[in-house]
Structure formats: structure tokens, C-alpha cells
Amino acid sequence: MRWPLRVSHVIELVIFDNDGVLVDSERLANTILAGLLTEAGLPYTFEEAVRDFMGGSMASMRQKTEAELGRPLPADLEDRYHQQLFDGFAHLQPIKGVEAVLDHLDARGITYCLASSGTHQRIRTALTAVGFLDRFEGRIFSAEDVAHGKPAPDLFLHAAGSMGVKPAGCLVIEDSPLGVAAAVAAGMKVFGYAGMTDPAKLSDANTVFDDMAALADLIDRA
Ligand SMILES: [Mg+2]
């Protein structure tokens, strides 16, 4: 009898989600989104916005809520959302402990990049605010770059392809169920960060962790 060969892949590329993994933006973003949807006639709490939209694109948010509402959302909703978000980004902080993870990857010579559902403008504004832009320059991938955002695998496959690494050599760090689903669909290893997310919702990840200080060790043992 022949057993399937189990191949263990060395991690060549770590793909970071941005919101909620690198930058602490989810609390702000979902508070703003819940407020705008409520104003538009679709009452949403912060918790419901986290549950339904965290990790997804604004395009998929619009599609879902318009189906629920039975009419279009205000045309300027995205503009107002981004304006309020960018105003708030002046006080944005990195996720506690994540800079040490980047330093660790640099020291080990493991390449990393960023793949986010946000627009390029949003990503760059956030990275600039926390001082990470130089670390990711030239290695920033947005849902704007592909036809289908998370949970489709397109964005992660696009990031890996652009970085010249096969999916089997990639490790994704994600805090949203949509992002974990996208990584699994892309055939990549994925660690779920349950900083703000219910860990049960990240259970499709290879590992779930809630303390960023543990990530460097988890990567070394992956
Ligand atoms: Mg996220």
C-alpha cells in the first residue's frame, strides 16, 4: 500500500492582513460604519458591524446591505466613511506587539507583505500613521487589485504570485472569518488572530492565537 507523501513546507512569505492585525483600526472603522448605516435607515450596532463586515470590502458591504434594505444606500456613503476614518487615523496605533514580529521576520530573513480588503489609499494612510509604510513599500496588495475580494482566494494568490512564492510556502495572518476563508481557499497556511474576533469564528485557521506576543514563536514552529 502506498501512503500519500506528506510534504511539510517551509514558510517563505508571511502575508499580513492590515486592519486588526497590523493597525488597530477595527474599533474605529466599525463604529463609523454602524453610524452611517443607522443614518441610512438600517440600524446597526458596532457589534453587528464587526460580526457582518469585519474583514470584507466596502463593495461587499454595500451589496449585502442594499439587498437587506431593498433600496440603494446613499451614493456618498463610502466617501463619508473614508473621510471620518482618515480623520480618526491621526490617532491610529499599531496592534500591540506586531512591530516585534516584523523585527523577528527581518532578523530571520523571512519576507513579508500585506494583503488588505481596504483601498490602497486607506492602507497607505494607516501605515503612514503607525510608521510602517517603509517596511511594506512595494509589497502592498489591495482588494482593488483583483476582481473578487476576500473570502475569494484572489487577493492572497495575487500577493503570493507578485512576490514569486507558491501558495504552499505562504502563511497568512488574519483576524476575520472572511480572511481565514480566503487563505484556506488559496491553499495557504493561516493563523487566526482573535484579538477582537470570537476565536470560534476563526476555527478554520491552522492555529488561533489572541496574544500578538506569541506570534513570533508560532511562526518559528510552523
Ligand atoms: Mg482584518
TrEMBL record:
Keywords: Hydrolase, Magnesium, Metal-binding. Coiled coil: none annotated. The keyword Magnesium applies. The keyword Transcription regulation does not apply. Pfam families: HAD_2 (PF13419). GO terms for molecular function: hydrolase activity; metal ion binding. PANTHER family: 6-PHOSPHOGLUCONATE PHOSPHATASE (PTHR46193:SF10). This is HAD superfamily hydrolase (TIGR01509 family).
